[in-house]
Amino acid sequence: MTTIDTNAFETPGRGRGLLDVFRYRYLLRLLIGKTTSLRYRNSVLGWFWSYVRPTVQFLVYYLVVGQIMQMHRSVESFPLYLFSGIVVVNLFNEAFSAATGSIVSNKALVRKIYLPRELFPIAAIVGAFIHFLPQLAVLLIVAVFLFGWVPTFASIGLILAGLVLVLAFILGIGLFFSALNVRYRDASNVVEIIRTIATWSSPILYTWIMVYDITENARWIFNLYMANPITVAVEFFHQAFWETTVSAADRHGWPPDMMWHVLAAVAIAIFSLIVGQYVFRRSERTFAQDL
Prior knowledge:
The chain is an all-alpha fold.
C-alpha cells in the first residue's frame, strides 16, 4: 500500500496570519493598487480631494475653535498646532474605517478563492496611508515656509514613532472590527462612534494642560487619557512640529510621566494586535459563508 507524505501540504483555507503578508507580497501590491485606483474613479477632482477634505476640515475647526472660541490667543501658532494634530487623527479615522469594511467590500474575492484574509485590511490601511501623504506634505510645507520649522533628527524620529504607533494600533483594531463586520454589520456604526471619540479625545482642539487641570482630583483619568495611542501620537507630532516653532515661554513641554504614558500606549497597541489577530483568525473560517 502506497503512503503519501502530507507534510508538504497545508490545510486549505488556513495560513499563518500576518506572517503570510510577506509571503504574498505580490498580491498585497495588487490589492493596494486596486484600492488606490478605485478610490477616486470617475471623480472630477480625483486625487485633489486628498487636499480639499482636510483643508476644509482645518478651516472649519480653526474658525470655530481658533477664532470664535479664541483658542488662538492661548496657543501661539495655533494653526500649526491644530494642523499637526488633525493629520494624525485623520489618518486614524480613514484607515480604521477602510480596514473595517475591507473584507465586506472584497467579498467576491473572499468567496471564490483563498488568499490570506489579512491582506485586505492591510491593503486598506496602506491605501489610506498613501492618501495621507499629501496631507503630511502640506503640513511640512506650511511648517517650513510659514512657521520657520527646521527639521532635526529628533523631530523626524518623533514623526516616525508617532506614525508607527498609530498604524500598529489601527492594524490591531482594524483586524478585530473587520472580522466583526462580516457577521455583524452593526460594527460599522460602532466604528463611526469610535471615530468621533478619537477626534475629540485627542489634544488637537485643546491642549493636554486643560485636561490635566480639570483632572486634578482624579489624576487616573488623565493617565488613562494619555495612555491612548492616538493621543501619544498627536503629542509626538506636536513636539516635532509645533514646540520647536514657538517661544520657550509658550511651549507646553511633555506631559508629566510621559515615558510611562508612551509605554502604556505601546502596550495597548501590541495588545490590540494580538487580540485583533486572534479574533480575525477565529472568524475567518466562516467569512465565505457569512458573506
